[in-house]
Amino acid sequence: MIREPSFDTEQAEFYGETLKALDRADIRFMLGGALALHAYTGIWRDTKDLDIFVPESVVKGVLERLREAGFETEVTDPCWLAKAYSGDLFVDIIHGSHNGTGPVDESWFENGREITLLERRIVVIPAEEMILSKIFVVAKDRCDVDDVLHIIFATRGDLDWDRILTKIGEHWELLLAYLHFYRYVYPSHVRYVPQRVFDLLHERCEEEAGSDEPEAPRFRGTMLDENSFAVDVEEWGLPDERTATREARGCQDEEWG
Fold it and tell me: Residues 162-218: pLDDT tens digits?
């Protein structure tokens, strides 16, 4: 719905105290989720949490400061997510994608956008990185395809496509799939995606079609949703690329305390 962000009194107090605690500790952070989506599209949907994005190296410090502020904290998934609670309210502290890709780094701060929230200036994550993280959210209980398409449309494609192409890396086929979704949904506004982007990705398709198949089988369904594609791994014997990616980052053993 196109309207301004709004919080009830309890939410505003909790979120304000959270932001104040991080400001006092001089911790750089960005906001994502519903607030970032609103910043780029004008769409606002009521939210039960606040998404705080930080580099992995400062997650421990964030949790310490929020505990000092009186909140309960937990490491929900060491690969990408921690939380801070106050009763039924909570904030998500995010430092990457759920599958072990797309870590938050300094370039996010360089390309973010400033908004006003609770009478303070706050940076939201860049539209490009928002797209790159949301394209992996394709599960039965949550799918962010509409968010990705809305960002492209609402920004009129005024995006750093070269940065998107560089950061998507080996997952470029997923980006191409989304761009075809965009063409289907917005056939009168295809021009918002530069033709050169389509040409480059289609050239990669042709190059791979002409190359030899890899000796070892690959399967990337779990990079999108480990539950929906569990049968492929557990029953059909296909490799679990999500687990391998997360293990390569040391996510299984990492602790922040």
Answer: 999 999 999 999 999 999 999 999 999 999 999 999 999 999 999 887 777 666 788
Model-level pTM? 0.92
For 127, the token pair is 């539209």
In CATH terms, 1-125 corresponds, of 2.30.42.10, 1.20.120.1760, 3.30.460.40, 2.60.40.1890, to 3.30.460.40
CA 248 to chain centre: 20
Q: Would you list the domain boundaries of the chain?
A: 1-125
Q: What is the 3-state secondary structure (H, E, C) of the chain?
A: CECCCCCCHHHHHHHHHHHHHHHHCCCCCEECHHHHHHHHHCECCCCCEEEEECCHHHHHHHHHHHHHCCCEEEEEECCCEEEEEECCEEEEEECCCCCCCCCCCHHHHHCCEEEEECCEEEEECCHHHHHHHHCCCECCCCECHHHHHHHHHHCCCCCCHHHHHHHHHHHHHHHHHHHHHHHHHCHHHHHHCCHHHHHHHHHHHHHHHCCCCCCCCCCCHHHCCCCCCHHHHHCCCCCCHHHHHHHHCCCCCCCCC
Tokens of 198: 């389509």
